[in-house]
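This week, look over our next protein:
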Amino acid sequence: MNRTATTSALAIVAIVMCVDCNSSPGRPSPDSAPVRPEQIVDFAVLYNQNCAACHGSNGKRGAAIALGDPVFLAIADDAAIRQSITNGVPGTPMPAFAESNGGMLSNKQIDAIVGGIRSWAKPDTLRDATPPPYATTVAGDPHLGAMVYATYCFSCHGPDGKGGSQASSIVDGSYLALTSDQYLRTTVIVGSPDSGAPDWRGDVPGHPMSAQEISDVVAWLAAQRPKNSALPNENALADSTGRGLR
């Protein structure tokens, strides 16, 4: 066998050996390499890992705001949801998730979560109703808020807010110390679908709450917060556009 033939034979043997090596039992396939955490952009995975523990599976039946509630999604825009995920809400259990704020999520991952939450929206939820603004920088009046509470809230939460036959206390110090004014405002507007609490249109049939009444009753609730609670107020929670998730 001449040198050329020998070289060709050796090359063929080498190719065969490489093929056999690549297909040998136990050798990982090229597409089996683990995905690094920062490369995950699947909404279901990201939501279950970062959001479901507080907001519930599919945005329902969690301890925090029901993100899957169509009424909530009708009043909270993408910027508000993104801001809360990015920055968190100081003084509450809502942490900052963005890498830029000490969290573990990239901007791309946050975009994926925002988009996934938005996919739960139902465009015709409010029909012809015009909802109160999600956030406001105008302070409410707690004295007027006491009268608003007596009109719209006492039948369920009791005359002093400490609980009634149909609902629990909303002036409990521990509860108010862990909730922001924006959280309270959001809850007054959207209600609590998981517990059957109505939104701003259903507390008194035929008489939806006005934006000012909502601000006033939130101010009344905030006034019940323990004095040693260092929670940011509603204005501090809103960004320059007046938005904030909680």
